[in-house]
């Protein structure tokens, strides 16, 4: 899912929303892949463009978190 995290407030709100989950979530921008739970890592990306978010579906299915994570991602969809 493509996300728009083009402001400090959006990055902070996104990280705060997904941090409680055990599921690994990554953000992909070009050749860079970073941990979506790290504010510092996110700010290393070009935030002027949409960023792809990917959740570890095996882990999410096992933890029954995938639906909740996808709903959070939809709030920040580009």
Question: What's this, in brief?
Answer:
This protein is an alpha+beta fold and 78 residues long.
What does this structure look like?
This protein is α+β, with helices and mostly antiparallel strands and 78 residues long. Helix content is 41%, strand content 21%. It has a 4-stranded antiparallel sheet. The radius of gyration is 11 Å and the shape is globular. It starts with a strand and ends with a helix. The relative contact order is 0.28. The mean pLDDT is 92.
* Main sheet summary: 4 strands, antiparallel
Q: State the order of secondary-structure elements, H for helix, E for strand.
A: EHEEHEHH
Helix content: 40-55%
Sequence of strands across the biggest β-sheet? 1-4-2-3
Radius of gyration: 11 Å
Low-confidence stretches: none
**Class from helix and strand fractions:** alpha+beta
End-to-end span in angstroms? 8 Å
Q: Please give the count of helices.
A: 4
Per DSSP, what share of the residues sits in E-state strands of 2 or more residues? 15-25%
Form type? globular
Total number of strands: 4
Q: Could you tell me the mean pLDDT?
A: 92
Keywords summarizing the entry:
alpha+beta; 21% strand
Please give the structural blueprint:
Layout: E1 2-3, H1 8-18, E2 25-29, E3 32-35, H2 39-42, E4 51-55, H3 57-63, H4 66-75
Antiparallel strand pairs: 1-4, 2-3, 2-4
């Amino acid at each position: 899912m493509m996300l728009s995290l083009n402001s400090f407030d959006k990055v902070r709100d996104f990280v705060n929303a997904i941090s409680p989950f055990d599921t690994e979530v990554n953000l992909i921008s070009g050749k860079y892949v970073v941990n979506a739970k790290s504010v510092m890592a996110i700010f290393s990306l070009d935030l002027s463009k949409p960023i792809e978010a990917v959740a570890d579906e095996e882990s999410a299915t096992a933890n029954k978190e995938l639906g909740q994570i996808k709903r959070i991602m939809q709030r920040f969809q580009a």
